[in-house]
């Protein structure tokens, strides 16, 4: 590798204006990025990894942020000294960025191809015809199917993985020297994630550009980067070659980041968290094969709590006013049994039908055909009053707790609300006491009762969502991607909490996720879905060790293993 630095960060301190004046959020960090290198930056939300990268592009809001000391030198130029015109020339031409959420980065009212073409027309001397040809070439390079047809499509008409590929095409359009990829695969399926990682590696090899790859997942970074920096609370706590940091971490925080992710080989009774490492109380107890066999023997000795028989959900669409209706089976002839106290993992790529099946079980979107028996009663034939009673016993924990909580209602009231609807407890005084008890049970406290959703972190909001769900003492809980948006260590805390609540209250879970390592850790059995159909269902350990179907093998092979 040519060891000439393309980017040098020297003693960089960034401050933001708050109620009490200027507060430093990045504390005197220094590092270099070399030409033709992929550098990983790892850390949790709030560690400063994205803020420090936005500073490289001069994208920090000037009214509320400032570089208190140090500098960011790109190709010998101090970015902080550039004027607006010089910064505009730098962005896109020399430094480009891929963001975490492509849907919010792409303009929904403009065609995908036009948005990439616009970059070329602004930054190069190409004619419209030449720019169109270059866009088609870029779409081929990022392996988008049928580039001419995709040029004409709007962002909402393509999948998440395809949207991310359009963003990559846009980012590399002007052949930048540096590409900053900020959590570019977080919301994607494992298979699509693997494809995007592979694509970035191929583009980097072909063009020789440098990449800064930002993520909270060290295993994922180890699949792409040459070197890695680990950030914690605005500081770089460790940096070095990826193999060295991944296999022989020196800092306690790095050790915690690696260990918080569920292992595919060993099933710990409780996942370690950063707090465990900082307090030197790391759990080591494992669930042995004998323990697992014994608990499952008890589980499957009783009658099923839920049984789905030949469940189908079909949607119809028609083209034009008098157009012929076309049917699409989102769930196609799915049957399974779920036992009291069991966790059934439900995996598959986006669009496979796993959330649709969850909604049919919850009676939020009724099945087109088939039967779903809960405690021996076919819940597809319930009256509205019977469905209301069912709601108390069958609950859901959503992926995004913020959008499922009313921003104008304090969280204590939000937890009390379902208790009132179902007539639990004698009065509000009793309900409040029960709510405070539940808040403490999920790791919060009495002072949180009067706070609003925006005053909490993502992990705390997920705990509030769980508190609201368990307030009704349900029997069956559908966890729909309920930890996928969380940092690794916060995810470990929430998974520990779900297992603890299951043990204490006897909950039964349907655990829906695209993160196969998490699903294996949580589940007794795992069901794999593909294009609406059930591919296979088996004990979690057996399925991962000996998958029968090619599709399942593909999913398991795509899990980031670490180097």
Give the arrangement of secondary structure elements.
Blueprint: E1 5-18, E2 21-34, E3 38-42, H1 49-56, E4 65-74, E5 77-78, H2 84-93, E6 95-98, H3 102-105, H4 112-123, H5 128-141, H6 147-151, H7 160-172, E7 178-182, H8 190-207, E8 210-215, H9 218-221, E9 227-232, E10 235-241, H10 242-247, H11 252-260, H12 274-278, H13 289-299, E11 304-318, E12 325-339, E13 343-347, H14 354-361, E14 369-374, E15 377-378, H15 384-393, E16 394-397, H16 401-404, H17 411-421, H18 428-441, H19 458-470, E17 476-480, H20 488-505, E18 508-512, H21 516-522, E19 525-530, E20 533-539, H22 540-545, H23 550-557
Parallel strand pairs: 3-8, 3-9, 6-7, 7-8, 13-18, 13-19, 16-17, 17-18
Antiparallel strand pairs: 1-2, 1-4, 4-5, 9-10, 11-12, 11-14, 14-15, 19-20
User: How many extended strands?
Assistant: 20
Estimated radius of gyration? 25 Å
Sheet with most strands: strand arrangement: 6-7-8-3-9-10
The N- and C-terminal alpha carbons lie at a distance of 20 Å
Helix share of residues?
25-40%
Instruction: Detail the poorly predicted runs.
Output: none
- Overall form: globular
Beta-strand fraction estimate: 25-35%
What structural class results from the helix and strand content?
Answer: alpha/beta
Total helices: the number is: 23
Indicate the mean pLDDT. 90
Largest sheet: 6 strands, mixed
In terms of quaternary structure, the protein is single chain
């Amino acid at each position: 590798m040519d060891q000439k630095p393309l980017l040098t960060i020297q003693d960089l301190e960034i401050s933001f204006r708050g109620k009490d004046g200027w507060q430093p959020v990045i504390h005197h960090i220094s590092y270099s990025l070399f030409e033709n290198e992929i550098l990983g930056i790892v850390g949790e939300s709030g560690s400063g990894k994205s803020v420090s990268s936005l500073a490289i592009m001069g994208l920090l809001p000037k009214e509320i942020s400032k570089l208190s000391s140090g500098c960011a030198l790109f190709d010998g130029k101090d970015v902080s000294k550039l004027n607006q015109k010089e910064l505009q020339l730098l962005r896109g031409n020399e430094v480009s960025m891929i963001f975490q959420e492509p849907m919010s980065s792409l303009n929904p009212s403009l065609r995908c191809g036009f948005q990439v073409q616009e970059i070329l027309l602004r930054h190069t001397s190409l004619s419209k015809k030449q720019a169109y040809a270059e866009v088609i070439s870029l779409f081929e390079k990022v392996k988008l199917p049928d580039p001419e047809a995709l040029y004409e499509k709007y962002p909402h008409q393509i999948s998440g993985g395809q949207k991310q590929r359009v963003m990559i095409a846009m980012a590399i359009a002007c052949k930048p020297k540096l590409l900053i990829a900020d959590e570019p695969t977080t919301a994607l399926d494992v298979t699509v994630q693997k494809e995007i990682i592979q694509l970035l590696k191929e583009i980097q090899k072909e063009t020789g550009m440098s990449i800064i790859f930002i993520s909270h997942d060290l295993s994922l970074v180890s699949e792409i980067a040459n070197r890695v920096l680990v950030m914690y609370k605005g500081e770089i706590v460790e940096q070095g070659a990826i193999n060295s940091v991944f296999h022989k971490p020196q800092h306690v925080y790095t050790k915690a980041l690696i260990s918080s992710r569920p292992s595919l080989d060993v099933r710990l009774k409780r996942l370690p968290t950063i707090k465990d490492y900082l307090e030197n109380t790391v759990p080591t107890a494992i669930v042995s094969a004998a323990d697992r066999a014994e608990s499952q023997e008890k589980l499957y000795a009783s009658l099923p709590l839920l049984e789905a028989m030949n469940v189908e959900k079909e949607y119809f669409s028609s083209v034009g006013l008098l157009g012929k209706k076309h049917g699409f089976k989102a769930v196609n002839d799915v049957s399974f049994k779920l036992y009291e106290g069991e966790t059934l993992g439900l995996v598959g790529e986006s669009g496979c039908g796993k959330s649709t099946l969850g909604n049919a079980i919850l009676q939020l979107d009724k099945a087109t055909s088939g039967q779903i028996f809960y405690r021996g009663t076919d819940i597809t034939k319930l009256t509205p009053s019977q469905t209301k009673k069912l709601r108390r016993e069958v609950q859901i924990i959503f992926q995004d707790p913020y959008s499922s909580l009313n921003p104008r209602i304090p969280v204590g009231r939000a937890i009390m609300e379902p208790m009132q609807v179902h007539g639990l407890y004698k009065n509000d005084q009793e309900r409040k006491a029960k709510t405070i008890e539940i808040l403490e049970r999920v790791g919060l406290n009495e002072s949180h009762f009067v706070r609003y959703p925006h005053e909490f972190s993502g992990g705390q909001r997920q705990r509030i969502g769980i508190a609201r769900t368990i307030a009704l003492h349900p029997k069956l809980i559908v966890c729909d991607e309920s930890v996928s948006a969380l940092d690794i260590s916060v995810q470990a805390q929430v998974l520990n909490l779900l297992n603890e609540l299951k043990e204490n209250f006897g909950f039964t879970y349907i655990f829906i996720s695209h993160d196969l390592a998490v699903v294996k850790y949580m589940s007794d059995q795992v069901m794999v879905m593909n294009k609406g159909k059930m591919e296979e269902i088996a004990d979690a350990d057996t399925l991962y060790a000996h998958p029968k179907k090619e599709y399942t093998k593909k999913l398991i092979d795509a899990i980031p293993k670490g180097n």
